[in-house]
Amino acid sequence: MKVTVHRKAHFNAAHRLYRKDWSDEKNEAVFGLCNNPNFHGHNYELIASVTGEIDPETGYVIDVKVLKDIIKTEVEDAFDHKNLNVEVPEFKNLNPTAENIAVVIYNKIKPKLDSKFHLKITLYETPRNFVTYSGE
User: Fold this and answer.
1) Tell me, what's the pLDDT at 33?
2) What positions carry a catalytic annotation?
3) In whole angstroms, how far apart are CA 54 and each of 18, 70, 117, 122, 135?
4) 68 close to 109: Cβ distance less than 8 angstroms
5) Is the Cβ–Cβ distance between 48 and 69 less than 8 Å?
6) pLDDT for 48-102, tens place per residue?
7) What is the pLDDT of residue 136?
8) Alpha-carbon gap, residue 27 to 72, rounded angstroms
9) pTM
10) What pLDDT score was predicted for residue 72?
11) Which of 22, 27, 116, 129 has a CA that sits 20 to 30 A from residue 67's CA?
């Protein structure tokens, strides 16, 4: 019997969407206001969903405190109140779109989990704009 456990988290971060190898005009045309050279910020909401079998001894799929601690270390401490383009190494050469941020978060959390678990990341950039990634 598989069950999914969800943990919500939050972080604030600034970013700029642009490609160094494109002209200013092309960056402006493709990314619009998100290409602001002075950056802009979001209040990101994260949902990390872990699916697995219920442990008959504990009744847990995963101890939520363990998941909470992983998210705090790997995501909140690493991204909160940071400029993603400037301060987060994973985005040195990767455009910090919501899609890429979700994949980076997945890649930071997944190795910390037992391989028996399936992980899905849902990242809200705004209340109406969000992405999901599950390693597929």
Assistant:
1) 94
2) 34, 81, 125
3) 44, 20, 11, 22, 22
4) no
5) no
6) 999 999 999 999 999 999 999 999 999 999 999 999 999 999 999 999 999 999 9
7) 82
8) 33
9) 0.96
10) 98
11) 129
Residue pointed to by tokens 């002075």: 38
The string of DSSP letters for the chain reads -EEEEEEEEEEEEEE----TTS-HHHHHHHHGGGG-TT-EEEEEEEEEEEEEEPPTTTS-SS-HHHHHHHHIIIIIHHHTTEEHHHH-GGGSSS---HHHHHHHHHHHHGGGS-TT-EEEEEEESSSS-EEEE---
Residue found under tokens 């301060």 = 87
- Taking the C-alpha atoms of residue 119 and residue 132, their distance in angstroms, rounded to an integer, is 11
**Which structure tokens are listed for 58?**
């504990």
Residue 41, both tokens: 């910020």
